[in-house]
Amino acid sequence: MGILIVVIVFGLIIGYLAVVIFSPFLTVDAEDINRMPKDNSIPKYRQSISIPIEDTFVSGWLYLPEDMVNPISCVILSNGFCGTKDAVLEDYALRFIDVGVAAITYDYRYFGESGGEPRQLFNGIKQMEDLRAVIEYTRNQEKIDENKIVLWSTSAAGRYGIIIAAEDKKIAGVISQCPSLDHGKDDKLILKREGFGYFLKIFMHAQRDKGRSRFGLSTHFIPAVGKPGSFALLNAPGAFEGYQSLMSESEHYINKICGRSMLMMQGSDVTKVAMNVECPVLMLVCEKDTTVSPDSYKGVAEILGEKATVIKYPVGHFDIYKGEIFEKVMDAQLIFLKRVL
Questions:
Q1: pLDDT tens digits for 11-33?
Q2: For residue 79, how many other CB atoms are within 10 A of its CB?
Q3: What are the residues whose beta carbons fall under 8 Å from the beta carbon of 331, sequence distance 6 or more?
Q4: Residue 188: HSE in the Cβ half-sphere, 13 Å Cα cutoff
Q5: How many CA atoms does the CB half-sphere of 141 hold within 13 Å?
Q6: Cβ neighbours around 49 below 10 Å, total
Q7: Nearest CA to 51 among 115, 118, 121?
Q8: Is the overall model pTM greater than 0.85, yes or no?
Q9: Using alpha carbons only, what angle is made at residue 203 by residues 198 and 207, rounded to the nearest 5 degrees?
């Protein structure tokens, strides 16, 4: 009787996986991000760079001030979830070079103009490897002071700078904007809004893509962002409109994520390493955030203690990138850079 039960259970699992992996009906359409006409002119101070990593490369842009006394300080900017360097980041980079600070923006592997297969694979461990490669590249530039590098990151990447600074004592400072630092609190926010079925659905689609990859089949994608009630990795109120605003001028943003990404370990728990950070950290928090928990920063800020400067803004997750709040945020970041550099 026991053997029969095992056989039945095993058969059910095989049947479930066969349907999940091979069914032609388990596809999800992503909502389109409308594109705006893009200004294709290249800023005077921007140059393209390519950084080898493993068997592929990271594509980036280096911004250098026109009148500089070598070597100068540099901010390395890391984008958030599925973001590409041709959206959002240049607004910050141009402000930095205005005050004589170099800047580097880049695409993670599998995204934008960087190499790597499968496309749209979100892997936090790989993304931090990309950041380390960019740091190494930056330190080898004669025009940049290797002891005056600041790591800037936003949203899903908000922890990257803190984790790297915990292991790399030469980092001069970290700027973490609307960061996701406590996945437990962030997941509870989603669970409360979407229910447990949402996570089961994510898991099923992740299994589908992983299974298809083992059989050499095409990648199974999940929408990266969608409107409330739709199936997407990010479907919080305002998320789709936020991406629409930020990514509308991007030529390389794709509103899809490789399903197997959700089965991958995403790197160190920032709360386990934050005590090793020695440099100053600026945290910019959105108090009305619905994409990450407004309390996501608190545990790490407490661990960092006096090394952390926390500034809160009474806005949502995507309001920090534009308009009046952007100007206030830039003022805070420039003051921070003047202090640490």
A1: 666 766 766 777 777 788 888 88
A2: 26
A3: none
A4: 8
A5: 25
A6: 18
A7: 115
A8: yes
A9: 150
Contact 158, 180 (CB under 8 A): yes
Instruction: Report d(CA 20, CA 37) in Å as an integer.
Output: 39
As a whole number of angstroms, the longest Cα–Cα distance in the chain is 82
The position carrying tokens 């089965």 is 263
Six-digit token string for 23: 């069914």
Secondary structure, 3-state, 201-231:
HHHHHHHHHHHHHHCCCCCCEEECECCCCCC
Q: pLDDT per residue over 178-220, tens digit each?
A: 999 998 898 898 989 999 999 999 999 999 999 999 999 999 9
Can you read off the two tokens belonging to residue 71?
């070597």
One-letter amino acid at 10 equals: F
> In angstroms, rounded to a whole number, what is the distance separating the alpha carbons of residues 341 and 323?
27
Backbone dihedral angles phi then psi of residue 311, each to the nearest 5 degrees: -120, 125
Please give the span between the terminal C-alpha atoms of the chain, in angstroms, as a whole number: 72
Cis before 314? omega within 30: no
Alpha helices in 112-238, H assignment, sequence order: 124-139, 160-167, 183-194, 196-214
Closest to 119 (Cα-Cα) out of 310, 252, 6: 252
Which residue shows structure tokens 């103009």?
113
Transcribe 59-87 into DSSP letters.
Answer: EEEEE--SS--SSEEEEEEE--TT--TTS
Shortest CA distance to 123 belongs to which of 291, 259, 273? 259
Query: 225 and 243 in contact (C-beta within 8 Å)?
Result: yes
SS3 (DSSP) at 50:
strand
